[in-house]
Amino acid sequence: MLSRLQDFLSRHRRKFIVTGVLVGGTIFAARYAQRRFVEFQEKQAREFFERTRRTTHFESTEKTCNQVILGMGEEMCQAVLRECSTEELLEQLRQNPKNKLELWEDMKIVAFTRLATYVYASSMLVIALRVQLNLLGGYIYRDIMTEQKQVTDELKQQYLSLIRHFITESGIRDLARYIRTQVIAVTKTMPLSQQLSLGDLEQLFWSLQMAINADTRRDPNSRMSKYLLPSQNPSHSPLLQKMFNETLDLLESEDAIGVCSHNVSRGFVLACDAIAESMGETLQHLPQAEVQTQQEQNLKFNQAGSSGAKNTKSLNGLENNNLLNINRVLLALAKLIPIISGLTSRGFDTTSRPHNLPTQLLTFYVVAEKTKTLGANVYESFSSA
């Protein structure tokens, strides 16, 4: 019996070896696959929790960023009003002086300077704080993940206080004075009696924007850091110096320059819309003779744009419809100056309805998709570095 069993095992030894290898290999492979699958699931779970944690932290950073922007926006608007004040000029004009024409010329310069300064300064402040808060948020998130404490409360305060240079020191002052020189250059040949339409005003703003951006040494788009931050870091902390240098690089990057340029262009469009609305309100209070003049001008525009065909619509019919095409209304520059000055005479105020122009500009830049994307990219880069 035993000999027959040995003989059977001897004859089928290779089969038993192969079968054993196959069975053992299968068991090993199954256990290995199961272990790898468990590791994959654990990795996926860790990545999911990390993404969720990062997303939550980023959303918290964005919320804080919006609050800081709106809080500092009020201070920025007050700084612009101080630098581009019209109170003294208005007081002199009320006294009906002999140099009234010169004062109105000064009013023209200040009104356009203040509007353009709001457009640029609001965009620059929003971009700077988006960059700063998201860069800082990325460093804080890395501290959380590595259980370190590199970013102290003192360092946070020192880093965020760098933007004070723009508001309380020479930033806005230098920006407003540079814009003023370009306003003078663009508007010096425009008499107060010149009749302007909305299209003419848009062209004027475009020319002003091109003039401001032309100086590569002082262009607020490509040289934001020149106005926003001090020339050097006042602290001796190595980490703060590193963050300061990284902020400079980000503000001078093509992405930041592109976002600022886009925001500024959109800001002047918002300004034109606000001016058009104010022009409509002004026309409602004009004497009937001036309304008649505007209707006649509209009729001439319609006749000129009819490709040579005679316009059969009567002036009386136009009056009965009580419609004026605001895009074809002409107003003297002297009448546009109070409108522009009035739009920018108040600071940031979220409680006013409707919002004034400085409030519209700042809130628009805060929710602008390109600005938010820039902040998200900064956070992503520094939170995962």
From TrEMBL:
UniProt entry keywords in alphabetical sequence: Peroxisome biogenesis
Keyword Metal-binding belongs to the record: no
GO molecular function: protein-macromolecule adaptor activity
Domain of life of the native organism: Eukaryota
One Pfam family this sequence matches: Peroxin-3
One annotated Gene Ontology cellular component of this protein: peroxisomal membrane
InterPro entries in the cross-refs: Peroxin-3
Example GO BP: positive regulation of ceramide biosynthetic process
The protein's assembly and partners: Interacts with PEX19.
Reported function: Involved in peroxisome biosynthesis and integrity. Assembles membrane vesicles before the matrix proteins are translocated. As a docking factor for PEX19, is necessary for the import of peroxisomal membrane proteins in the peroxisomes.
Protein name stated in the entry: Peroxisomal biogenesis factor 3
Organism expressing this protein natively: Drosophila yakuba
Gene expressing this chain: Dyak\GE22224
